[in-house]
Structure formats: C-alpha cells, structure tokens
Amino acid sequence: MDSQETSQFVRNINLLQLDNDVLFHIGIKAGDQDLRRLLGDVKFVCMGGSASRLKWFAKFIQDELKDFLNSEKEPYNMAKSDRYVLYKVGPVLAVNHGIGVPSLMVILHEILKLLHYSGAQDVKLFRIGTSGGLGLEPGTVVITRRAVNALLEPVNEQVILGKQVRFPTTLDEELQQQLLDCSEDLPTAFGDTMCTDDFYEGQGRIDGAFCDYKEDDKKEFLQKIHDAGVRNIEMESVCFAAMCNRAHVPAAILCVTLVDRLKGDQITLPKEQKEDFEMRPAKLVAKFIKKSLEQHNGEMCSLSSKRTYRNSFASDRICWMLLFMLEQYINNYSF
Ligand code: R2B
Ligand code: URA
Questions:
Q1: What's residue 331's pLDDT?
Q2: How far apart are CA 49 and CA 58, in angstroms?
Q3: Residues in the ligand 2 pocket, defined by CB under 6 Å
Q4: What pLDDT, on a 0 to 100 scale, did the predictor assign at position 320?
Q5: For ligand 2, atom 6, which residue shows the shortest CA distance?
Q6: N or C: where does the chain have the smaller number of CB atoms within 10 Å of the terminal CB?
Q7: Structural domain contains residue 1
Q8: Residues in the chain with pLDDT < 50?
C-alpha cells in the first residue's frame, strides 16, 4: 500500500463523511487549499503558549535553518482566525496553543487533522514552553521524563459523553535522550513535569485572588512533589503527551523554568532575562532539528508530494476506511 495513503494522525471514521472539513480555530477548510503541497513536507511541529513567541520562533528557526532552506521570505501567519497562529518554515510548523489544557486540546485536534489532510509523514511534535521549577536555578530547561497530573498520575483525564476517560501520557524515550544529547552548554534538567489546571491555587501559589491554605501547607506540597521526582510545573503537558500518544506521534516537552517555586511564587525576572530564558527551549529544539536535517542531508526540506489534496482525496478515503474496519475487527475479536 502506498504509505502516503495511510495516516497515523487521526482515528475517526466520521471525518470520511465530511465534504470539506472546517478547521474552525485556524480558519482553514481542508478541501479549499492544496494542503499536500503546502504542508506535506512538515516534519517538526513546535508549539508554545504565546502567539508572539511563536512568531519570534518562526523567524529564529528560519535563520537557524538558512543553509537548508531555499526561501528567505518572511514567515507569514497561515491561520485565518485570531485564536491561534501558524507559521511554516521549511519542514517546521510553528503553532501557538494558548494557556491550559482546553486551549491546547482544541488546537491539537485541528493540527493533527491538518497533518492528516496534508499527508505529512514521520512528524515529531515539541512543546517549547515556560514553567515554574522545583529546586532548579531559573533558566534551566526541563526535558520532561513523565507528564503527571495534579494528583501525580501519568494520565490526562477527559470527560467524554459524561464519563471520565483516562489517557496515558507516555513520551518517547529515544527523543528525550536525543534532546539531552543536544543540550551542550544550556542548563538542562531531566525529570517529571506536573500539569495543573491553574497557575495560582492549582500550583500551590499563595498570591492568587483567593488562598485558603498557609505558606507551610504550600511548602509541604511542593516538597512532596519534588521528592516524587517533579522538577517543574506548567499547564499543558499531560494533554500534549496523551494526544500525541493517541496519534502515535513521537513528542517531547521542553520548558524553561522562570522561578524556583521552592523559594517563591512571583516571577520577578527583568524583561531581557525573561526573554533570554524563553528562547532556551527553542534553541535546544533548533539544535535537534538541524542535527536531524544534517543526518538526512537536508532532503527533509524538499516537498514530499506534488499530488493535490483533491486528487488524492478519494483514494485516501478508501484506504483509510479499510484500515479503520480492520482495526475495529481486531479490537472486537482479540482477547
Ligand atoms: C506556562 O506558562 C503559562 C502560564 O503562565 C502556561 O501556559 C504554562 O504552561
Ligand atoms: N508557567 C507556569 O505554569 N507556572 C509557573 O510558575 C511559571 C510559568
């Protein structure tokens, strides 16, 4: 079977019924553009919270990869909605995801469908973000070993049709090691990342609008999670890991620490230093991407397919339907 006609990114037979899938939050209709030509060669999706940081990242990665790229045109925002930004630079797609799991989950559904409709292959996803550290010098990049929820469980819990469903947050160990190998002079740590639904009470801060616990309770909690292996706290990791895991996409999470939570709550870094720290996960990922491109002699940067989305749509549907039926059959008849 032509490998371009299978897709790892989605598993939803209902998509076959859609004539022209609307990716609402990025303002793209799947059938209106030649997505295979535009995005078929994407190999690395880099996501982070803020739209302006991702705009900066797109320019930065363009500069870093200039020896591999054949265009110096300024990256433009492909998203036609004001919710998220989407920049394509050679084999890299840079996307912001906003704050927290709900915002990330919405854009990840749409990015995975976008990758599916584009026929992209061998894609890796990265979250390059910020976090509060535990026992680490601010400015340390934590490469996440396991993403755990606020109860220290390695799962992302979703409520689907009124029922709680738990998805494991397994991350790719080989990718973690490859990133650690790229860290060189950057201060880097490797450990568990706790994902919370809130920046204030959810992360045990005492400086929110409300706080019904004492400084000692907070210290006890933070020390407990530190002793359990947590090295940083942020707000998206369990969802990012679980959805990439469901999509069988190798994924990694790299977040710089902006404060040592064992010492305080407020982020008081001067602007320049904060900006410098925020670049560090991007620098680390850029090194990894460059190394990957060097290993492939830059061939990842050529367009992987010239077929149009419309031309390939019918054959994709048939192969995809057969695969889905096979999977259902195996699930129903295996013990
Ligand atoms: C890190 O920083 C943001 C909160 O300030 C949130 O998106 C996160 O995970
Ligand atoms: N982002 C978080 O979620 N927490 C912090 O402490 C810093 C950044």
A1: 56
A2: 14
A3: 130-132, 199, 203, 233-235, 258-259
A4: 66
A5: 132
A6: C
A7: no
A8: 1-6, 303-314, 334-335
Write the single-letter amino acid at 225: I
What confidence tens digit (pLDDT) does each residue in 198-243 have?
A: 999 999 999 999 999 999 999 999 999 999 999 999 999 999 999 9
Q: Checking DSSP bridges between strand 86-89 and strand 251-260, what pairing results, if any?
A: unpaired
pLDDT at 8: 85
Query: Cα–Cα distance between 133 and 187 in angstroms, integer?
Result: 13
Q: Which domain holds residue 131?
A: 17-198+232-256+271-330
Residue at 209 is within a domain: no
CATH number, domain with residue 147: 3.40.50.1580
Q: How many domains does the chain have?
A: 1
- C-alpha 167/C-alpha 157 separation (Å) is 6
Structure tokens that stand for 120 in this block: 């992209």
In a domain, 305, yes or no: yes
Q: What is the pLDDT of residue 200?
A: 98
70-114 residue pLDDT tens: 888 999 999 999 999 999 999 999 999 999 999 999 999 999 999
| 171 alpha carbon – ligand 1 mean position (Å) | 20
Residue at 263 is within a domain: no
What is the reported pLDDT for 326?
A: 73
Task: Quote the pLDDT of residue 307.
Answer: 35
Q: Under a CB-based contact definition with an 8 Å cutoff, are residues 122 and 249 in contact? A: no
Task: Answer whether 4 contacts ligand 1 (Cβ < 6 A).
Answer: no
146, two tokens: 């396991």
